[in-house]
């Protein structure tokens, strides 16, 4: 991964003494051990399990065992258990070992090892997210290509259903991690003035679990796909091919990964904030990430339980969801949506809140109503746990509950409106320094207005009779997850890119790609709203001829998105290698991550900062000088000298007046 | 500018302040109000004519109610969207600061405004209540239908299976058909179930939708009020040929329906 070289130390690494066995381990040994153990698991389970008598339970059991063996083998091979194992043996890691584990002086190889440094984990998440988006986006292009004209036989109904399922789950995983993974790991600890996460080894484990899950998920391509949509409704998923087993193993591994990451990030933010960083001085982005991962902690286990039940149905004939065996499909749908609706906010919150963090920097004024934003986040998180059954209005399950769920669902529009107000209030009266990150705010305000209002139609039970399960729903949730979520994540990437890679993101190509994608996005999904209103169901491989025009419009729009995203990707990759070198604080922001050098040193701060006010004091605290030369010291307004300038180390605190000229 | 030349933690050099009063200091209320009005009018026109038109002519009172709900929700949300977009447009056009460095002068520090916050909360709560009350009223079982329905509802048993629908008329000697025939202006009660996976029984033009679940029977009712041929589509992914699980619905006058029942019974016997 040559593109990462800018991150590595310049000097040739001096080999340390620590590490021991860990020096020999990397993603390569992980893959080798994983494949070997998977093969062993396949051989043993094939030999020992009884031959199929009823149904194809044996195939499913063998697939499950093989995939689980892969994951365990990979984790052993990559060195995930070296630390705990040595602790058990009574030979705990020495300081040198810990430094090796943190990737000290390892150059690029630290990205391919079980490395505990939160910045390395953040970069690993970033690259993985981008790869997942590339795969999921390609699948979306195939879907839209098939729908361009009626009666098209480009992929056929079987492959079409598999594409829809894989596109769905790949994008869901990518969007869940797209902000909390890269920026929650790389930026958040620095932002709160910590030297690393609370549990660095768990942090590495959460990433490598995700890494182990990706091949499992992709193996579904070769095991008959996931022809059920990513919701995998039972009992359809009971009769699906072994690709379904790959899906459910993925979900279980991913669930463990997000649980570890969630516990870790939450603990870090609660326990490791700098001295003086009270909750009302904590940057709003921290609230976004923490509420998101904490909500995931509550929600995702539901999905894992649903998947364990499905695994038992498929491999043991447990009949949790099979009506003829005494089971109930509504059990599955309830568990699924108990995760499914909070999950929407797990995706949305950090992306929107990242833009709340960005807006004050580019408008040079405080966040309009910090308390309003926190209230909005809290309201959304609280309500989001009590709205899941609005996905089941038309299921026939408990019709008397439709009205209460309609009430809770529509109430969510109030806290969501508060977030809009805070964004608009921060933009109010400008100036808005027009750089790429803040453009995402405008795109989000446009898209999320549409996404939010169309959500209100769907929340209304009578209207849902016409819209549930139609393309209108597909368009609506793309407007929220992509139009708001992904847009926010792109804004966050443009904003933190200089800190993470040491280079500026090329704004010309980045901007062209971004706006091309936004234009294509609106064309695509406005077309989908139209066919949805006219009555086209979701997930149909061959829609009726009456929907041809709308579908063609959507397909053209989708290609425009594809082109825009490729341009943006080019801008990212090119800037990563050849971009203009970034100063430590190119945006003149006040939060702590911009006060440390770029590239960020191993432990972020040599002396931990002390915080005396919040980080939005633009134009306050005497920093409102009109002339740059008269700017006071470059410590952020919010960071006290803590007894002189000693709170920040010499190299991170800022230079004095001479440095300016 | 390279990393070595710039002091760590430094802010980038600011562009000098433009001469005269910066654009973002002017009170922008009037132009934003104008933008807001223009957008609101455009969105109101859109709300009045587009969604209901795209949804097509309704074939039942249920669908008529749905379309009027969609229209009124669109009307109610028009000024809200217009306001967001008006501020967005104005800010993009007038408040932009195109410099390479951050603006020379920081903006006025607006840390909240309780009046604005309160107004916003009250307005959004009022809008939300409007939606809720509207939705709950429409959702409430219409007592009038039950009392005015002089005839008992026609019961139709609907069974979904991969990938076809079967209709049975239990009140009429268990007539079975693979297309749905309904009399106009008579309440119909569907008993819906499935033989295999979950399907969703959706008569598009009538605004009727209910899942067909294996092992349970769910119900839905409608009074078709327009004769003609309409479409049933399955609205829940149900496997390979989900997209072909479509069946016509024929709504006949009550005489024609009675005639169809007679011929179908003859054909069966």
UniProtKB/TrEMBL annotation, chain A:
Q: Which Pfam families match?
A: COX1
> What biological processes does GO assign it?
aerobic respiration; electron transport coupled proton transport; respiratory electron transport chain
Query: What is one term from the GO cellular component aspect held by the record?
Result: membrane
Looking up InterPro entries in the UniProt record yields: Cyt_c_oxase-like_su1_dom (IPR023616), Cyt_c_oxase-like_su1_sf (IPR036927), Cyt_C_Oxase_1 (IPR000883)
Transmembrane annotation, as ranges: 25-44, 64-85, 120-143, 163-192, 204-226, 246-263, 284-311, 331-356, 368-389, 401-424, 436-457, 477-497, 509-532, 552-573
Protein name from the UniProt record: Cytochrome c oxidase subunit 1
The protein's matches in PROSITE patterns, at most eight in alphabetical order, are given as: COX1 (PS50855)
In terms of PANTHER family, this protein maps to: CYTOCHROME C OXIDASE SUBUNIT 1 (PTHR10422)
GO MF annotation, one? cytochrome-c oxidase activity
Functional description taken from the UniProt entry: Cytochrome c oxidase is the component of the respiratory chain that catalyzes the reduction of oxygen to water. Subunits 1-3 form the functional core of the enzyme complex. CO I is the catalytic subunit of the enzyme. Electrons originating in cytochrome c are transferred via the copper A center of subunit 2 and heme A of subunit 1 to the bimetallic center formed by heme A3 and copper B.
Q: Which Gene3D superfamilies does this one have?
A: Cytochrome c oxidase-like, subunit I domain
**What keywords does the record list, in alphabetical order?**
Electron transport, Membrane, Respiratory chain, Transmembrane, Transmembrane helix, Transport
- Disordered: annotated span: 622-661
Q: Which residues form the Cytochrome oxidase subunit I profile domain?
A: 103-612
Coiled-coil residue spans = none
Asked if the Swiss-Prot or TrEMBL record annotates the protein with the keyword Electron transport, the reply is: yes
TrEMBL record, chain B:
**Which Gene3D superfamilies did the record assign?**
1.10.287.90, Cupredoxins - blue copper proteins
Task: Give the Cytochrome oxidase subunit II copper A binding domain ranges.
Answer: 151-263
E.C. number, please?
Answer: 7.1.1.9
Q: Which InterPro entries match?
A: CcO_II, CcO_II-like_C, Copper_CuA, Cupredoxin, Cyt_c_oxidase_su2, Cyt_c_oxidase_su2_TM_sf
Its recorded name reads cytochrome-c oxidase
Q: What does this protein do?
A: Subunits I and II form the functional core of the enzyme complex. Electrons originating in cytochrome c are transferred via heme a and Cu(A) to the binuclear center formed by heme a3 and Cu(B).
What are the recorded Gene Ontology BP terms?
ATP synthesis coupled electron transport
Does Translocase show up as a keyword for this record?
Answer: yes
Q: SUPFAM superfamilies, per this entry? A: Cupredoxins (SSF49503)
Q: Where in the cell is it found?
A: Membrane
- Listed GO CC annotations: membrane
Enzyme category, top tier: translocase
Family, as annotated: Belongs to the cytochrome c oxidase subunit 2 family.
Q: Which reaction does it catalyse?
A: 4 Fe(II)-[cytochrome c] + O2 + 8 H(+)(in) = 4 Fe(III)-[cytochrome c] + 2 H2O + 4 H(+)(out)
Q: Which PANTHER family match?
A: CYTOCHROME C OXIDASE SUBUNIT 2, CYTOCHROME C OXIDASE, SUBUNIT II
Q: Which UniProt keywords apply?
A: Copper, Electron transport, Membrane, Metal-binding, Respiratory chain, Translocase, Transmembrane, Transmembrane helix, Transport
How is it placed in the membrane, per its record? Multi-pass membrane protein
Question: What organism is recorded for this protein?
Answer: Oryzihumus leptocrescens
> Major place of localization?
membrane
Say which domain of life the source belongs to: Bacteria
TM region positions: 29-50, 70-95, 116-140
